[in-house]
Amino acid sequence: MMRRLWAILCITAIALVSVRPARTMPADVQVRRDVDLFHSFGRYLREKLVHGREVVFDRPLVQFFQRASTQGEWFKHVLKGLEGYFPFDPNLSGQLSLFFSALVEGTWFEPQNNGTCQCCDPSNPLYAYHVHIGMTGNAGEVVISYNTQEKPPQSCLYVAEEHTSNQTKFCTEDVRTTSLGSGLSPFLCTGWSGYASHVKVNGLQPGKRYTYTIPGSPGNVSYTFMAPYGNTTKTTKLAYFTDIGTKGGEPVINTLLSRLDDFDYMIMPGDQSYCDGYHGCFDAYMKLIQPLAAQKPYMVATGNHEGPWNFSYVRTNFYFPVSESGAAPDALWYSFDEGPIHFVMMNYENYFDYPDGEWSMTQPAPISTYPGQIEWLRRDLEAFAKRREHDPSLWLIMMAHRPLTCNVTDKSCNHFGPILEQDVFPLMYEYKADMYWCGHVHAYERVSPINNVTRELCSDCVRDNATLYYKPPYPVQIMNGIAGRAVADNDYFTPGVSYPPFVAQHYSSINYPYGGYALVSVDNNVLNFTLYNTSGAVLDHFRIEK
Ligand SMILES: *[C@@H]1O[C@H](CO)[C@@H](O)[C@H](O)[C@H]1NC(C)=O
Ligand SMILES: *[C@@H]1O[C@H](CO)[C@@H](O)[C@H](O)[C@H]1NC(C)=O
Ligand SMILES: *[C@@H]1O[C@H](CO)[C@@H](O)[C@H](O)[C@H]1NC(C)=O
Ligand SMILES: *[C@@H]1O[C@H](CO)[C@@H](O)[C@H](O)[C@H]1NC(C)=O
Ligand SMILES: *[C@@H]1O[C@H](CO)[C@@H](O)[C@H](O)[C@H]1NC(C)=O
Ligand SMILES: *[C@@H]1O[C@H](CO)[C@@H](O)[C@H](O)[C@H]1NC(C)=O
Ligand SMILES: *[C@@H]1O[C@H](CO)[C@@H](O)[C@H](O)[C@H]1NC(C)=O
Ligand SMILES: *[C@@H]1O[C@H](CO)[C@@H](O)[C@H](O)[C@H]1NC(C)=O
Ligand SMILES: *[C@@H]1O[C@H](CO)[C@@H](O)[C@H](O)[C@H]1NC(C)=O
Ligand SMILES: *[C@@H]1O[C@H](CO)[C@@H](O)[C@H](O)[C@H]1NC(C)=O
Ligand SMILES: *[C@@H]1O[C@H](CO)[C@@H](O)[C@H](O)[C@H]1NC(C)=O
């Protein structure tokens, strides 16, 4: 979620460093000045963090960041967002750590980010970075993805059953790169370089644990994972979050790392980072999530913040099972099965607005705008319906980054939701989706099953004080946009506004500044859904019984 924020910031201003806004100068000199300034700002903050001394913000420095550049816009947005936290963490070092997070979001102090935006460390050109695994929907199959600075002569890795040494070699021809990204002057880098290898590993025994090794120099990279079940099991457990952000997402990442036994894979419908086309920054996000995503399959849909440069970062670095799900090779939508669930990932993000790859504010467009998406969706749902005729215990969960029905004071709910519903509702209801998942708005809201035409609550399906949906005839909708910290903004819930009975539960990210995520476990006839914050408090819990 991104808003245009032009507000002047009120930040205590006492001289800090003797940097002044730049006057007119040649573009290359300007870029250099920006780089130096970003670095000195980052260094200054780190030093202060280390020494824990009191910190103040220099008004000219802040004004510098507010210049009319896209980067300035982004930083302004972050500053504004951070300002919103002050009531929650009013001490200066608290503010400081949030500013520090904002800098990490922009990778302004990443040492390699010196204007060239290399994906990886050029002194170890074949070492594997940003390792993550994905599923294809086939039992015993994963795709292991990673970046290298140079194109490997052969992209191969080795897989063995955990604790054994009998390795099998898997190689790929699927090695991608992009020339699109990462920004314009005065951005820190003017291009992205690197390669993404996507190695398909199959023939594994579902549920068994395996260790993979990506050979490299100065060392190998190795992780252990569980081979997915595809549709060969009747139970499944997963984590679901959106809108996480670089650095801002760290508390959720760390929490999930501390409870690895509670989920087998992760579902993330959009806004992984808030890098907005800054590929060096997205790399920083991938570095943060690697310890998690390299051992738990990480399935993503695309949000507005993945959009700039025609989604080139995710297109390059993520393997979407499009061929497995009958979608076009460049589709940003796909489906897959795991356990009894058929997951459908869709995309509403309008990238036609910036054919040159520049960031501009995105507006969602109906899914029928994208060539082939609605036709694919209908085919996919039709095929699923046939399978469900034979096995009524299957579940259908559809998702995209943006909400359909929701009830916060926000354009996404008031204006865009109803437009997007027009495409998706008829199919979602016709094919009896059990749930719709999304994020985008940095809030959590649960929408009980409502009729798609009358918008009346299902009769007698809401039970036990809305903790049970019993044989619901319509989907339960969840907007779960509270995973992030540095980017969380705005209190969407206006005091005194009444919510309709179908909005069973709502939270604004502003009240949970350290992030939230859901754990979902499913069997033949029950889906348990629990929303946690990173202290472990249960913010919401319900179940659906078929
Ligand atoms: C100030 O903020 C820091 C960093 O968020 C936190 O660790 C510390 O507990 C806070 N101190 C007080 C007195 O709130
Ligand atoms: C940027 O840093 C990398 C090492 O991290 C180096 O190889 C490269 O030459 C540097 N580029 C510039 C323009 O300074
Ligand atoms: C299970 O998935 C496989 C593909 O992995 C597919 O061929 C098969 O039809 C599916 N079976 C059912 C019952 O859905
Ligand atoms: C090693 O693994 C391969 C493929 O998984 C298998 O065919 C072979 O029998 C295994 N060898 C030993 C000694 O376990
Ligand atoms: C890296 O992995 C390969 C393949 O398993 C192995 O042959 C090699 O010895 C490993 N290197 C190191 C340094 O562990
Ligand atoms: C975006 O990239 C895809 C995949 O490369 C390509 O098919 C499509 O034409 C591109 N769209 C625009 C607007 O550049
Ligand atoms: C929530 O929905 C109800 C009924 O649709 C509407 O009257 C109310 O204005 C909405 N509230 C907000 C904050 O959008
Ligand atoms: C409502 O759902 C039904 C299926 O239950 C579907 O046929 C119809 O097209 C939907 N109408 C709208 C306006 O979404
Ligand atoms: C019902 O749920 C609401 C909201 O979660 C809660 O405030 C209320 O105390 C619950 N009532 C009972 C009787 O459990
Ligand atoms: C989690 O929620 C509990 C209960 O609302 C609250 O006391 C706690 O401060 C929250 N923790 C975080 C990190 O948001
Ligand atoms: C759902 O939660 C209930 C109550 O905790 C538990 O008994 C049941 O086994 C759970 N079912 C699944 C599929 O997780």
TrEMBL record:
EC nos: 3.1.3.2
Keyword Hydrolase (UniProt): yes
All residue ranges annotated as the Purple acid phosphatase N-terminal domain in the record: 130-219
Catalytic activities: a phosphate monoester + H2O = an alcohol + phosphate
Signal sequence interval, chain numbering: 1-21
One Pfam family of this chain: Metallophos
Residue ranges constituting the Calcineurin-like phosphoesterase domain according to the UniProt record: 237-444
Protein family membership: Belongs to the metallophosphoesterase superfamily. Purple acid phosphatase family.
Name of the protein described by the UniProt record: Purple acid phosphatase
Organism lineage string: Eukaryota, Rhodophyta, Bangiophyceae, Cyanidiales, Cyanidiaceae
